[in-house]
């Protein structure tokens, strides 16, 4: 059933929001401008968005700042570290190369958005280039850049994302083990999972 309050056309949407300002348009470029390279070099965390036959996927990627390398003004290289082997994002890239990246920098309000097309590679020189602690990534994601622009800081300010966390703050959300136990109606040993998780994560970080 269609609501009388639903926005169903671009014309309705544009009438509601109006036109973007001059700065909002001029900040978008089809290449990695030196200013945008500086943001990428400072970022230790990005969200990778993909699309494929199974639907959409958005997943976190992180490493020391600059972990996504700028190959040239149209190319980014991102190492794919070991994980849980679901490889949802990678399956999508093989099926549909369209990707989007959102880079975050701790303490900085502005984020950086990159759209482009990706390809997976196991080129030996690239795997060696991104080795950490003597361990190579599973593969490298090569991204051909189509558009780049920074996002203003309003969302970060509203969320207080970078506000200091009180030293005595208590965890108020379920632990991974508790979630798994709840999803399986206690068939999964969540307490053991939580107890062993920190050591397992340290041992399998790379």
TrEMBL record:
Domain Pyridoxamine 5'-phosphate oxidase N-terminal: residue ranges: 33-152
One Pfam family this sequence matches: PNPOx_N
InterPro entries: Pyridox_Oxase_FMN-dep, Pyridox_Oxase_N, Split_barrel_FMN-bd
Membrane-crossing residue ranges in chain numbering: none
Domain of life: Bacteria
Lineage of producing organism: Bacteria, Pseudomonadati, Pseudomonadota, Betaproteobacteria, Burkholderiales
Official protein name in the record: Pyridoxamine 5'-phosphate oxidase family protein
Gene3D superfamilies from the UniProt entry: Electron Transport, Fmn-binding Protein, Chain A (2.30.110.10)
């Amino acid at each position: 059933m269609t609501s009388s309050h639903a926005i169903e056309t671009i014309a309705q949407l544009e009438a509601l929001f109006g036109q973007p300002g001059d700065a909002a348009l001029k900040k978008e470029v089809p290449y990695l401008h030196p200013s945008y390279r500086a943001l990428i070099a400072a970022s230790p965390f990005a969200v990778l968005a993909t699309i494929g036959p199974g639907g959409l996927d958005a997943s976190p990627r992180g490493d020391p700042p600059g972990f996504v390398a700028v190959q040239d003004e149209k190319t980014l290289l991102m190492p794919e570290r070991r994980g849980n082997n679901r490889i949802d994002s990678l399956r999508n890239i093989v099926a549909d190369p369209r990707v989007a990246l959102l880079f975050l920098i701790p303490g900085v309000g502005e984020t950086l958005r990159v759209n482009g097309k990706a390809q997976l590679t196991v080129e030996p020189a690239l795997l060696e280039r991104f080795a950490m602690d003597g361990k190579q990534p599973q593969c490298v994601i090569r991204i051909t850049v189509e558009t780049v622009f920074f996002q203003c800081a309003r969302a970060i300010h509203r969320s207080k994302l970078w506000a200091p966390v009180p030293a005595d703050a208590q965890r108020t959300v379920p632990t991974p083990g508790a979630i798994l136990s709840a999803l399986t109606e206690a068939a999964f040993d969540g307490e053991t999972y939580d107890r062993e998780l920190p050591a397992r994560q340290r041992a399998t970080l790379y």
